[in-house]
Amino acid sequence: MILIAESGSTKCDWVALNPDGSEHTRFSTMGFNPYFHSASFIEEELSDNAAILKVHSKIAFVYFYGAGASSEGLQDIVKDGLTKVFVNAKVRVDHDLLASAYSTYTGEPAITCIIGTGSNSCYFDGNEVSEVVPALAYILGDEGSASYIGKRLVSDFLYKKLPQEMADDFFNTYQLDKDEIITSVYNKPNANVYLASFSRFAGKHMHTTYVQDIIREGFSKFADIHIACFENCREVPVHFVGSVGAIFQDILLEVLEERGMKLGQILRKPVDGLIKYHLEYLRVLDAYQEQT
After folding, report:
1. Can you give the residue range of the structural domain that contains 39?
2. Are 135 and 113 in contact (CB under 8 A)?
3. pLDDT tens for the 292 residues of the chain, in order
4. Are residues 70 and 118 in the same domain?
5. Do 89 and 217 reside in the same domain of the chain?
6. Measuring CA to CA, which of 31, 89, 180, 253 is 20 to 30 A from 197?
7. What are the φ/ψ torsions at residue 55 (nearest 5 degrees)?
8. Which CATH number characterizes residue 141's domain?
9. Which residues pair with 215 in a beta bridge?
10. Strand partners, 130
């Protein structure tokens, strides 16, 4: 079987395909990011997963696309962990940006953006994926992302800048004080995922002017930094992958239209498009048949 995985920092979607290309099973795990997770951690987490235990020995190829896997060294961390679990498989690890480009490809060049836990962008002409500006992660970058939104909500709550009704609801929902928040952000792992978790609160209050202003500010920064950097940004469609772009797509459309940019697809989860690309363009079944 062939196993395709698309992992953000929060969640990873897995789909196992039979030799004829039909779907065998799909499941989800936590997301794995080599900036925060070691090979041994990945191995331990997956080795305890019941869905993986059912198929791991039957997998011949693993195609894993993950947040943070942007260099050979970082990819090797993930690959080492996966190889110890899928002992009979050839394992390929690539960046989640590549998965986003593949999943939204319709046969024409386009800009593809990720706006989920983090944010990033690339240009895909059908052959090569290229970047102009880097993704700087949740401390320096991730404009418009869930971690960006969460960071703003938390800081405004602590600074007492949230509208009173929202401030009361925030406290009643999370029961957090400054010390707990500071400890989770500065002294515990996965601070980006922790901050991103508060974006759900923004979704709950998405019709307020306060939240809409935060979203519009984040999307505007993202567009000006990560889309406008491409010379042909007003000539090709701009696709988006990730939950934040999907939830706040009305604001996203407004931001792009203000800049003369053309909105393409918005996919909350890229895994279905990723499967299609592997079957139609990468012809992974041919490789599978050659090996078996």
Report:
1. 2-101+271-291
2. no
3. 889 999 887 889 999 988 887 878 889 999 998 888 899 999 999 998 898 988 888 898 999 998 888 889 999 999 999 999 999 899 999 988 888 899 999 889 999 999 988 899 999 998 888 888 887 777 787 899 999 999 999 999 999 999 999 999 999 999 888 999 999 989 887 888 899 999 989 989 999 999 999 999 999 999 999 999 999 999 999 999 988 988 899 999 999 999 999 999 998 888 888 888 888 776 655 655 556 5
4. no
5. no
6. 253
7. -125, -10
8. 3.30.420.40
9. none
10. 123
Do residue 34 and residue 175 come from a single domain?
Answer: no
34 and 115 inside one domain: no
What's the structural domain count of the chain? 2
Query: In this structure, is the dihedral angle defined by the CA atoms of residues 101, 71, 66 and 139, taken in order, positive or negative?
Result: negative
Residue listed under structure tokens 């500006």: 133
Q: Whole-angstrom distance between the N-terminal and C-terminal Cα of the chain?
A: 10
255 contacts 238 by C-beta, under 8 angstroms: no
Integer Cα distance of 52 and 65 in angstroms? 17
Count other C-beta atoms under 10 Å from residue 213's C-beta.
12
